[in-house]
Structures are given as structure tokens and as C-alpha cells.
Design brief:
The protein has 261 residues and is an all-beta fold. The protein is globular and about 45 Å long. The protein is built from one helix and 17 strands.
């Protein structure tokens, strides 16, 4: 079966994988990764733009965790409605004890783990792909494509890949694996809602009781169009062309290990 990804027809089956183009040779770099405030002036913390804050941040401690999330309500030409969610989580070292030992054993110095979760539910179309997980162990310097402003993930077996870009207005989300392909073009990201908990520190939320903090913003009115191709219960590739609306959240937080997984 053919699917259309990034302007090209590609095969999707339970056999050969569907590959994202040029991930292996993408120019990447994490030199600018840091805590999400670029300066402090007159007691006012200044964050970068939402597009600049899209990139991964350097860990501030063992419990420091960050994630990217897209939530959408979409429909297909036949009138079926879908709930769609895609989440990428970058856990802190303290959280790795919650994972399977074989997963933790893959992580070497200079590497980090990224966990992804895909959900597609439609009672009208009898689809329930809830919480489909993917794990990526990435070299730190290969996660961020600065030129494309994109988060790029691929596993060691070259079976699962994800590219998620954001330029301040438009997003492109592409996920490819042997049993799943997502290709979404998203617009409307220029409207940003920053967390507003502390005067003079837009985006920052303090937990006074626990002594921790989080940083977040949301893109609340996104317009979404594209396709999702998945393998159904019979092993048959099925494509849903979808259009609708949704929102994206970008957050970094210090979380206890039992609150992450």
C-alpha cells in the first residue's frame, strides 16, 4: 500500500519500514540548549520566542523532564470523528528507574531517552489505537535540527522515526514506522499562551509546596490537515485523511518519578 509523505509515495506494511528522508545526514546541534530563559533584567526573566523554546533544554537536575504534546479533534471525508494525540517525553535521569532495565541499559554517556506515545480513537470508525509507545535512545547532538527548527528522533534499528518542526507559525509532524505513518501540516502557531503564575516571569510556574518549578506555553488554535496510516487488527494498512483543529503544549518541569509514567 502506498502513502504520501513529504511529497513522495512510500510503502507501508508490516514488513519494510517507511523511512523519513535525510534524517541521517541532517545538520544538527544542541549548543544553545539551556534553561528556558535567555536573560534576567531588572528582576524580569525573559524567555525566547515560542519557536526557539521548541528545542530541547539542557537538564537542570535528575528530575528535570520536558515534553511536547499535540491534541486534536479531527474528521475524515466520510464524516467519522477522531481524537488524536501525539506526545514526546524527554525524562530526567531520576525517572529512568521506572523503565524496563533493558531499555535503560541502552543509554550511554552523551545519550538521552525520548519516549513517544500515539493515540487515535474513533468510535464511529471502530478505531482504538490508544497509547501506542515508541522509545528512542538519541545522541544529544543529533536530536535538534537547528536549520529546520525540528525535533528529530530515530531508533538504533532504523524502524521508527519522527520529525516535528515549528517555525513560529507552521508545524510539520511526520512519524514513520512499520505499522504507523503520520503526516500532518499544522498552521496557526503564532498565537501563544504562556503560563502566567509569577509576575515578571512569563511562562514560569512555581510549586511553593514542593519547591519545584515548571515552564510551559500552549498553542491553542491550530488548524490541522494530513493523514494517518495504521495497521488494523487484521494486519491491514488503513489510511484516514483528516482535517480539524487542536492545540500543542510545550512544557518542562521537575516531577517526582511516580508522576511521570
Amino acid at each position: 500500500m502506498k502513502i504520501h509523505v513529504n511529497g513522495k509515495d512510500r510503502d507501508l506494511s508490516s514488513g519494510p519500514r517507511v523511512a523519513l528522508p535525510d534524517l541521517a545526514n541532517a545538520e544538527t546541534g544542541n549548543r544553545t540548549r539551556s534553561f528556558p530563559f535567555s536573560s534576567s533584567h531588572a528582576r524580569k526573566l525573559a524567555h525566547r520566542s515560542a519557536a526557539e523554546e521548541w528545542q530541547p533544554h539542557r537538564a537542570q537536575g535528575d528530575q528535570s523532564t520536558e515534553w511536547w504534546n499535540l491534541t486534536a479533534a479531527v474528521g475524515d471525508p466520510a464524516g467519522a470523528r477522531y481524537f488524536l494525540s501525539w506526545t514526546v517525553t524527554h525524562p530526567g535521569r531520576h525517572h529512568l528507574g521506572q523503565l524496563r532495565p533493558e531499555a535503560v541499559a541502552q543509554i550511554k554517556p552523551g545519550q538521552d531517552l525520548y519516549a513517544c506515545r500515539f493515540t487515535l480513537i474513533s468510535y464511529q470508525a471502530s478505531i482504538r489505537k490508544a497509547g501506542v509507545p515508541m522509545m528512542f535512545v538519541m545522541n544529544d547532538h543529533e536530536v535538534w535540527d537547528e536549520q529546520a527548527s525540528a525535533l528529530r528522533l530515530r531508533d538504533a534499528q532504523d524502524e521508527h522515526e519522527c520529525a516535528w518542526s515549528f517555525d513560529g507559525e507552521r508545524m510539520n509532524l511526520t512519524v514513520c514506522s512499520p505499522t504507523l505513518a503520520v503526516s500532518l501540516k499544522i498552521q496557526g502557531g503564532s498565537q501563544v499562551i504562556w503560563a502566567d503564575d509569577q509576575p515578571g516571569a512569563e511562562g514560569l510556574v512555581w510549586d511553593m509546596a514542593g519547591g519545584s518549578h515548571s515552564f510551559s506555553y500552549s498553542l491553542p488554535r491550530l488548524r490541522i490537515a494530513g493523514s494517518v496510516t495504521y495497521t488494523d487488527e487484521r494486519g491491514k494498512p488503513t489510511t484516514a485523511d483528516i482535517i480539524g483543529s487542536g492545540w500543542a503544549d510545550r512544557q518542562r518541569s521537575d516531577l517526582p518519578a511516580d508522576q511521570l509514567w
